[in-house]
Amino acid sequence: MVATELIVRDLAFGLMLGCVFSVVAHGLNMIWGVVKVVNIAHGEFIMLGAYGAYFLNLFAGLTPLETAPVDAAIGLLVGYAFYYAFLHRELRNKETITLQSEMVTLAATFGLSLFVSNLAIILFTGNPVGVNYNPGTLLFGYLHVPLAALYVAILSVLIIGGTWLFLERTFIGSAIRAYSQDVTATELVGANPAKVASLATGLGFAVTMAGGALLTVWIPVGINPLMGALYAPISFVIVVLGGPGKMWGSLVGGLTLGVVIDLAQAFTTAQIAYAAAFLILIPVLVFRPEGLLK
Amino acid sequence: MPILQANNVSKNFGGVQALKDVSFDLPDSAVLGLIGPNGSGKSTLLNIIAGLEKPTSGIVKLDSKRIDNLRANRVVGYGVAKTHQIPKPFSNMTTRENVAVAVLYGRRNIHSPSLALQEAERTLSLVGMGSRKDAPAGSLTVQEKKRLELARAIATGASVLLLDEVFAGLSPDELKDSIQLFRKLHEELGFSALVVEHVMRAVLNLSHNVIVLEEGHVIATGSPDEVVHNDKVIEAYLGSKNSAA
Amino acid sequence: MIEKPGLTLYGLFIVMALLAAAALLLGVAVSSLLVLLLVYAALAYSINFITGMIGYVDFGHVLFMAIGSYALAAMISYYGANPLLGVGLGALLGLVFALGIGLVILRFRGVYFAIATVVLVLAAYNIVLQFPQLGAGGEIIFNLTFQPLATYFTIWTIVLIEIVLTYYVNRSRIGFGIRAIKNEEDAASSVGVSPRTLKLTGYMLGGLFGGAAGAVYAWSISGVTAGPAFDFTFSLLMLAMIIIGGVGTSIGPLLGAIVVYIPSYFLLTTVAQAQPLIIGLLVIIMALFLPDGIVGLLRRSNERLRLLLE
Question: A residues 127-166 near C, CB within 8 Å?
């Protein structure tokens, strides 16, 4: 393949990877944007979603695409539990999250992160596993596009679009949007803040775990208890790039990062590519803290 | 020689002209009222003088020294202290400790915490908050927090106070007390003050002079009496219920 | 103006004296055990400067520990230098890196700062793996004669310095400024405090002592490996220690180190994952229910204790 063809291929793959990154980060974005809390344990729930895909494939023969809704349902419940365990007390009486509450949730979710990942090591052992899902490839000119990656990319975009539609077109969705702007105003429109916040958290976790399932397509031998340590920072960078709370920001940030990482790996080692991708965060925070979107 | 001087201060926030060519003089020991309808730029002007924002153009001078290019904490070192419209106490420190921070970091050259705590106690008594000195600042009522803002500003040893709506939301009796307290403090301490207010009674009672902003411009200056009867000012406030109480 | 020290400082001195005596009298086995305890304490005091006192959560604090470890390992491995020089270099590099990094990231607030510190650790880990000078696969191992007492008293001295520094900073004018920043950073500058200066100072102290502690740690285990050196479990441990002990206090880090270390030592012999599991759980519980730690709890329970414990 000629140089331009290689670049096009890397671009195509980067975009497809970026779509999955987007949905993986989207849950974090939702929770960050609505409840204004950053879940440091985010990576661990991606990991759980990935293991969900692995086990459902192992025992029930489900593909990652089919696992995604199952993971989403589990995530919804987990999210509710997470809200009431960690957030309810802090948020209940306050209009916005105070600095002290911020430290508390940061520390608590950090503890949760290491608790869950080490529990996973004990339960699942440290051996990396993977899901075998290969419906074939599509030939697009000179491009061999794996259908698995394509399906997952499409589903990812649908999920993000779906949450956007939910937030914009349903009553509960608008209650959630109201909550993210002004907690006390939520009561004025007749919604219960705790219910709104817990639902938003549940949705965030649902998307996160579904994202973990879809991610497995890209890591055929990479499902391991510590994978959260890689995908959480990736998610953080994506959310910051797109702007916390901006729903389409997940897609913008995810696509950007996917392309950057994929292209970079063409020129340098994987390590440097990832290091660079992480370090992008800092200049963005310095020069454009609201994110790349207007 | 005025102690504080603003020359043609303008501030542009990416397309929105918050202030345009605002100039005024604040004479030593005088109280200058700054009024105007909402959105007229009063807070922006205070923020610029206090060093929280930089003017797009124009100069602010304190005693002939330029301060518009200084950061907020350095402006305090020069002797200008601003209160917050929505009080921002150091919630997990006692009221006395709150004021002590101001004593230690203002321009009074007191570096010993025990001395600072003593000074803080004195200042709190001055503003009538002596009984609350050991209370955690986070547990104070809104009015007490406003008094604390004032106490902190005074405690820095500032010669110029920038007061941001300190008289807002008071009952008629509380307002009377606050106006008296301000008079007493002004007599005893002799500071100069720029007072942003919506409560006309306070402005008219306490100011030597008043300047009126509308949409970033100065539309009138003069004595309180002159300004209140100025046609342009009345027009700017048409519909406002904040007439002299 | 230095005021007469209170009971807390004397209490801490007594504990340190006991630790010194234990090492001298109870033999090599005990001092090897206690070296790790003191390393933990040194790390706790170092993160206390930036996270406990100023309130900026430094998840990436393990970075300074790694810098110190690599500094010492490189000095001994490639230059055959005296380990004490390695510790000095570790401290110096920690300080310098903290200055450089702090100038950029201390302007970020809350979560953004925390995430930036994480990102830096990940980037550093990946970068270290690129440099063969830092060992193939980031591993440097050296062979030194076993000097338990030298190692022990080096870290002992470091902890002692940290205790005194923490104690006096808390009581001084700087302590007031730091607490003001932690409570309400914007209001702090409106009364004349310079947040930039104080934040940077706290971060640099964290880097200095984190680097020193990391260097001694590498000395005590005769080497450094990239994976463990940049392990976030250390950051968790450091956070756990100050949360359990009491953030920002003088007693907290040492108390937290003792509470975290004793069980850790025994747990390490059973399931390797049990330690972070239990510590993680402890952190969750403490953060949610007792955010000001044991010292905070004691101070709130009794007026006399509130005045005595710092």
Answer: none
Of A112, A275, A286, the CB nearest to C284: A112
Complex prediction ipTM: 0.89
Contact: A106, C111; criterion CB under 8 Å:
yes
Number of domains in chain C: 1
Q: Is A115 on the interface with C (CB under 8 A)?
A: yes
* Whether residue B145 sits in one domain with residue B167: no
Q: At C92, which CATH number?
A: 1.10.3470
pLDDT at residue B111 tops 80: yes
The total number of structural domains that make up chain A? 1
Q: Position B171: which residue type? A: S
Cβ atoms within 10 Å, residue A98? 13
What range does the domain containing B55 cover? 1-79+159-245
User: Which residue of chain B has the CA closest to C168?
Assistant: B113
- Residues of chain A in contact with residue C233, where contact means CB-CB under 8 angstroms, are 114
Q: What are phi and psi of C48, to 5 degrees?
A: -60, -35
Tokens coding A159: 């999920």
Structure tokens at C136: 């193939």
Whether residues B52 and B125 share a domain: the answer is no
Interchain pair C130, A114: CB under 8 A:
no
B217-222 β-sheet, strand order = B80-82, B160-164, B192-196, B31-35, B209-214, B217-222
- In this prediction the pTM is 0.90
pLDDT digits 0-9 by tens, C266-301: 666 666 667 788 888 989 999 888 888 999 899 888
Query: What is the CATH number for B64?
Result: 3.40.50.300
Residues B173, B150 share a domain: no
Q: Which of C175, C184, C189 sits opposite B72 (nearest CB)?
A: C189
Asked, for residue C135, whether it belongs to a domain, the answer is: yes
